[in-house]
C-alpha cells in the first residue's frame, strides 16, 4: 500500500506538504522564447525563430525553433548576444531577458514568455509502461510520473525507488519510499527535467531472474522419460 505510516497531523500536513516547485534551466535545455510589445514591428527581430504561416507546430519543428542552453548556461539571443540563464527558474530567466531587451533600447516595455520544449523524465524498471515522457505543463510529481507509466507492476519494490539527478555536472542518487506518506514532504517530490526514476524488482522478481527458465521443461522431459521406463519395466 502507498503513503502509509505518517506521524503528522492533518494540520501539519496542510502546512508542510511540498507544493512549491520551480524547474531550473539547465545545459542542453531547449527554450521556446517569445517577446511581445505594443509595437509588433519592434519585437520582430527577437521572434525570428517563429514559424510563419503554419497552423500547427510539430515537435520536430519546435526543436529547431528553440534556443539551446549551452554547457555554460548561456543562450545566444538576437540583437542581445549571450544571456546567462542556466540555474535560473523560468520566472528569473524571464526577468533577466526582459531587462536585457529593455536595456537594448530596441523595444519599450517588452514582455517575454518562455516554455521548455524538452522537459522530459525517464521511468525505468518495474512499471507497466517504462519509457521517456514529455511533461507539457513543466511540473510533475513522483506519484504523477508513476501513474503516467501505468503504475508499478506487482514485482516493483515500492520502498527503494531510485531517483537519479544531475546537479552541477554530478550524478546524484536519492531513495524514495512510496509506501510512506513522508514522500509528500520530500524535496524530491517534484521531478526536474531529465530525471531518471528506476523501480527495482522486489526479492521475488530478483530471485526468479537467477532461476533457469528451461528448468520446468527439463523436469517435464525427465518425468516423461521415467514414466516410459517404468512402463516397460512393468511389462
Description:
By secondary structure, the protein is an alpha+beta fold. The protein folds into two domains: 10-21 and 119-208, Outer membrane lipoprotein wza fold like; 30-116, wza like fold (2-Layer Sandwich). The chain contains seven helices and ten strands. It has helices spanning 10-16, 40-43, 59-65, 90-103, 142-148, 203-209, 215-234, and strands at residues 30-36, 67-68, 74-77, 81-84, 111-116, 120-125, 131-134, 161-167, 170-176, 196-199. The strands form three sheets. The protein has a five-stranded mixed sheet with strand order 7-6-10-8-9, with helices on one face. A three-stranded antiparallel sheet has the order 2-1-5, sandwiched between helices. It has a two-stranded antiparallel ribbon with strand order 3-4. Residues 52-56 have low confidence and may be disordered.
Amino acid at each position: 500500500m502507498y503513503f502509509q505510516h505518517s506521524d503528522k497531523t492533518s494540520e501539519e500536513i496542510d502546512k508542510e506538504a511540498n507544493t512549491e516547485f520551480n524547474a531550473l534551466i539547465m545545459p542542453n535545455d531547449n527554450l521556446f522564447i517569445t517577446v511581445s510589445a505594443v509595437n509588433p514591428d519592434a519585437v520582430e527581430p527577437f521572434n525570428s525563430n517563429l514559424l510563419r504561416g503554419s497552423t500547427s507546430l510539430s515537435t520536430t519543428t519546435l526543436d529547431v525553433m528553440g534556443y539551446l542552453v549551452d554547457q555554460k548556461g548561456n543562450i545566444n539571443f538576437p540583437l542581445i548576444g549571450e544571456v546567462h540563464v542556466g540555474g535560473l527558474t523560468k520566472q528569473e530567466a524571464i526577468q533577466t531577458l526582459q531587462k536585457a531587451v529593455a536595456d537594448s533600447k530596441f523595444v519599450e516595455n517588452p514582455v517575454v514568455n518562455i516554455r521548455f520544449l524538452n522537459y522530459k523524465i525517464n521511468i525505468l524498471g518495474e512499471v507497466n509502461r517504462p519509457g521517456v515522457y514529455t511533461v507539457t505543463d513543466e511540473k510533475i510529481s513522483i506519484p504523477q510520473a508513476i501513474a503516467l507509466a501505468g503504475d508499478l507492476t506487482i514485482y516493483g519494490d515500492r520502498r527503494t525507488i531510485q531517483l537519479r539527478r544531475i546537479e552541477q555536472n554530478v550524478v546524484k542518487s536519492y531513495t524514495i519510499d512510496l509506501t510512506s506518506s513522508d514522500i509528500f514532504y520530500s524535496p524530491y517530490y517534484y521531478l526536474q527535467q531529465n530525471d531518471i526514476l528506476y523501480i527495482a524488482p522486489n526479492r521475488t522478481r530478483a530471485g526468479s531472474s537467477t532461476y533457469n527458465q528451461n528448468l520446468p521443461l527439463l523436469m517435464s522431459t525427465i518425468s516423461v522419460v521415467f514414466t516410459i521406463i517404468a512402463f516397460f519395466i512393468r511389462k
